Automatic annotation (TrEMBL):
This is AINX protein. It holds the Pfam family Filament. Residues 69-128 form a coiled coil. InterPro entries: IF_conserved, IF_rod_dom, Intermediate_filament. Gene3D superfamilies: 1.20.5.170, Single helix bin.
Length: 179
């Protein structure tokens, strides 16, 4: 019988060497795998930190934009109020100017009516003057006619020629015009 114990020992030594190699290979594989996982974890942690930094920066920018937006909203509301006040002031001024225009139009109408009345009175006075001028001219002709008759009738009386020429006095009549 061959030495079974020696064969078993040899087989055991081979199995143990194989187990040790397998164990070493598994440990190497595990270490390599852990190293890769640690590497990935480190990269992921750095990516998370970068993402957090970026998120923080975005939050700060968002806050700044919100503050700016609130500021602009306040400025917008202020400008809207100013615009409304300006429109109200403009409307009030326009109403005041319309009232002034209305008053000026009334004054103009009254002035036109007064001018028309004065014009009618002037026309009436002009008509009276013209009538009086015609009447004066008629009286002059009558007087001149009488003088020529008187001169013809006296025939040579030179003593009358030395008399001053007659003067006429005018007494104005009062006329009432109906307007």
């Amino acid at each position: 019988r061959p030495d079974l114990a020696a064969a078993l020992r040899e087989l055991r030594a081979q199995y143990e060497a194989l187990a040790a190699r397998n164990l070493q290979a598994a440990e190497d594989w595990y270490r390599a795998r852990c190293a890769r996982l640690h590497e990935r974890a480190a990269r992921s942690q750095e990516a998370v930190r970068a993402s957090r930094r970026e998120a923080g920066e975005c939050r700060r920018q968002l806050q700044a934009r919100l503050v700016e937006m609130e500021s602009l909203r306040g400025a917008h509301q202020s400008l809207e109020r100013q615009l409304q006040e300006l429109e109200e002031r403009h409307n009030a001024e326009a109403a005041g100017l319309q009232d002034t225009i209305g008053q000026l139009e009334d004054d103009l109408r009254n002035t036109k009516n007064e001018m028309a009345r004065h014009l009618r009175e002037y026309q009436d006075l002009l008509n009276v003057k013209m009538a009086l001028d015609i009447e004066i001219a008629a009286y002059r002709k009558l007087l001149e006619g009488e003088e020529t008759l008187f001169n013809i009738g006296s025939g040579g009386l030179t003593s009358l020629n030395s008399l001053p020429s007659p003067t006429y006095s005018f007494q104005p009549r009062s006329f009432s015009s109906s307007t």
